[in-house]
């Protein structure tokens, strides 16, 4: 009997994981990457005897697939993807593929901002409670690789809109939607409704035994709920209104009422401070309550969680100037939260690949908090034009070292230097982690 052919586009974490799982499940596997495949991934592919190519897509070897798993970074408009769809060859995401081979319960978290923090917090909560849990999606190891090599009872999965786009039959046992604000519009024909539809896919296939946890303060989410039928049990959370069920804040106390269980905790005891983190903590606490974690465990985790690298990471003080690494802030809303949480004058490092940003949303905060702007990118003209006249100094830089030196030069004791780019990193860096690490390295070298 001839094996079905599984073609994998993209040789990164998700692609290599899916290749291993595909081979294990009896597919003939071929992996193709238009760029270079990292050395560590080539070693793994060779170890498993998997066929692959790099720096090209050989159409004859791709267009005869029975099934294609596409890495989330490859857009639907890529020529090879367009050709596959014309031939009606199914193109799915790694999460969809791996989800077919596991019966573990899934807690899936999406939103324009706060995904990673909420995912890590929820995972930490379940792990500390002694549950057999994996961490996957945008963080942790590839979901497919874990399905191939581990046996977990639960997975906490961070999902981007790109991953959701390639999911059809997958179902989240607990779906968490934190917020929806304009992001990645370059991938959605600059139409907000396309991006919103993508985020709402988190609820697809859910039934009455599933849970949908969402922010009741988000106008876009609330408008969508009026238009759609959600079959799951709905659990809202809010910091502006008092609710009977879900999560809310009353007299500076975070209160949860989920699954006939109540929980409360003063907001000053939360490890992660700031309005946005209150939402993240509530969403994680609700998820923990749904899977019946003990109150003491939820409380302990919410009060001592350490936070996430590259997300408002207070990294180092140099001559009483605080350097903060918020490299993960790749959209306007993330930067808005970062600036809003600042208590000292800010020298702001911003720039990269613009995803259709509207900088006017930041004007008021920038006037209040920012004393100088350091642009970091190949083309900073849009940022310079947007903030001209709003701050005293705007400096144009082309490398992280130059940006950090300029920021240090323009700051005084008691100031903060904030790397919060509002843009993707791909013009000068491999990814946001690479950008964050280069920032920290440049600060250490001051």
Provide a short characterization of the protein structure:
This protein is an alpha/beta fold and 446 residues long. It has 17 helices and 20 strands.
Strand order in the sheet with the most strands: 7-8-6-9-10-11
Report Rg. 22 Å
Reported by name, the CATH topology of the largest domain is: UDP-N-acetylmuramoyl-L-alanine:D-glutamate ligase
Beta-strand portion reads 15-25%
What's the story with the biggest beta sheet? 6 strands, parallel
The CATH first-level class of the largest domain comes to: Alpha Beta
Q: Whole-number average pLDDT?
A: 93
State the end-to-end distance: 64 Å
- What best-fitting shape do the alpha-carbon axes yield? globular
Q: Name the assembly state.
A: single chain
Poorly predicted tracts of residues: none
Structural class: alpha/beta
Number of domains: 3
Q: What is the second-level CATH architecture of the largest domain?
A: 3-Layer(aba) Sandwich
Fourth CATH level, the homologous superfamily of the largest domain: Mur-like, catalytic domain
Describe what this molecule looks like in 3D.
It is a single chain. 35% of the residues lie in helices and 22% in strands. Helix 1 runs parallel beside helix 7, helix 6 packs parallel to helix 11 and helix 6 packs across helix 12. Strands 7-8-6-9-10-11 form a six-stranded parallel beta sheet, covered by helices on one side. It folds into three domains: 88 residues, NAD(P)-binding Rossmann-like Domain (Rossmann fold, 3-Layer(aba) Sandwich); 204 residues, Mur-like, catalytic domain (UDP-N-acetylmuramoyl-L-alanine:D-glutamate ligase, 3-Layer(aba) Sandwich), CATH 3.40.1190.10; 132 residues, Protein-Tyrosine Phosphatase, Chain A, CATH 3.90.190. The mean pLDDT is 93. It contains 17 helices and 20 strands. The longest helix has 16 residues. With 446 residues, it is α/β, with parallel strands linked by helices. The termini are far apart. The radius of gyration is 22 Å and the shape is globular.
